[in-house]
Amino acid sequence: MISNGDRLVRYSAVMIAIKGVGIRCIMSAREAAVILGEQWPAESGRKNEIALKACYSVIHGYVAPVICRRAFEAAAREAGFLLE
Q: What average pLDDT does the chain have?
């Protein structure tokens, strides 16, 4: 079960499309961390690193979920995965 503090968004998901993985509907910092850590391409950039740290910070209760969402969206946009 996902706690409210772990939710990336209150009413909507972050939608991404990764080649070989497909379209994903990301609803939590935990989901985002798994995608960033295990399914992101090897050539990930600085925004990927920032987003992963933001995800872990949300999971541990150090920052608000909106920080993770913004960082995850920036990393997805940089990689060309964000569906806007």
A: 86
**Relative orientation angle of helices 46-59 and 65-79, to the nearest 10 degrees:** 160
Place of tokens 């379209």: 23
Pairing type for strands 22-26 and 14-18 reads antiparallel
Give the CA distances from residue 69 to residues 19, 51, 75, in Å, rounded to whole numbers and listed in that order: 21, 8, 10
Q: What angle do CA 21, 48, 36 make, to 5 degrees?
A: 35
Would you state the pLDDT for residue 21?
A: 83
Structure tokens at 35: 């995608």
The encoded tokens of residue 20 equal 């070989």
